[in-house]
Amino acid sequence: MPERRTAVVTARVSAAESADWRAKAKAAGVPLSALIRRAMARTRTWTARAAEVERERTRQVSRVGNNLNQIAKWANTHKGAAEAVEVLTRLVAIERALGALARFENPERDAR
């Protein structure tokens, strides 16, 4: 049996926000309170630690992207001389970097 909803939460919003929220609830065919509960259930907050992990992940992905750009430039410049072994070696390095990124903690999981 679901828990009874007896607590009331109050939020100050503008008249335009209120009208927008009510229109969205009507379009979804649900009461405003249900719409807000659903929206809040999908919202994830981040701890300072999780935010730092995400910043580091972004830096690492940027580095991987830079490596891919360098490989693409090299391959386009040296089309005739491009050796598959060298390109594959660089791609393996990128794969390893992505594996290292996958081992980072998950900020969304930690914030729950």
Detail the topology: elements first, then pairings.
Layout: H1 15-28, H2 32-42, H3 48-77, H4 84-102, H5 107-111
Helix pairs in contact: 1-2, 3-4
Question: Number of DSSP strands?
Answer: 0
Contiguous helical run count: 5
> How many domains make up the coordinates?
2
Spatial separation of the terminal alpha carbons: 24 Å
pLDDT average, as an integer?
82
Any low-confidence stretches, pLDDT <50, length ≥5? 107-112
What is the 3D form?
Answer: elongated
Q: Could you tell me the strand content as a percent range?
A: under 5%
Q: How big is the Rg?
A: 24 Å
Can you give the helix content as a percent range?
over 70%
Account of the 3D structure:
This protein is mainly α. It has two domains: 13-43; 48-111. The protein has helices at residues 15-28, 32-42, 48-77, 84-102, 107-111. It is elongated, with a radius of gyration of 24 Å. It starts with 14 loop residues before the first helix and ends with a helix.
